[in-house]
Write a sequence for this structure.
């Protein structure tokens, strides 16, 4: 099983095994035994010419699984970045479903400084490029 692409994506040639239209959002936690392996995979994807199809969000001070751990076990800052990361995931998916390139949109709008990685004082209403539906915008505003 360890040689299977889903178990060990770093072992596959992304030029051959990753669909030409595939886009990926990779969220890395620094306090994670998988950090180094993930960084090696990012470099491999770059060497194979596919980094333009991947957005990498790095959180060096977050523990493995902090986006899925029950909120009661998280600090206030972890809960905040957890919500911001999930918002970025929704945004990534929404842009892709619109038939646009989510990696290019995120890189254009924020570069390496997406909201969840500390772009301070970004109000949801100011981020016109987020492409959230009115329902999602109202939901976000009610929790802010």
């Amino acid at each position: 099983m360890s040689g299977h692409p889903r178990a060990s994506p770093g072992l596959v040639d992304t030029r051959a095994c990753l669909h030409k239209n595939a886009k990926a959002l990779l969220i890395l936690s620094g306090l994670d035994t998988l950090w180094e392996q993930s960084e090696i995979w990012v470099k491999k994807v770059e060497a194979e010419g596919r980094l333009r199809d991947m957005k990498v969000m790095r959180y060096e001070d977050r523990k493995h699984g902090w986006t899925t751990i029950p909120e009661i076990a998280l600090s206030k800052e972890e809960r905040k970045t957890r919500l911001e990361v999930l918002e970025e995931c929704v945004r990534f998916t929404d842009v892709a479903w619109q038939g646009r390139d989510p990696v290019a949109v995120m890189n254009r709008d924020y570069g390496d400084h997406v909201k969840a990685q500390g772009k301070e004082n970004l109000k949801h209403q100011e981020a016109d490029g987020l492409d959230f539906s009115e329902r999602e915008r109202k939901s976000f505003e009610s929790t802010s």
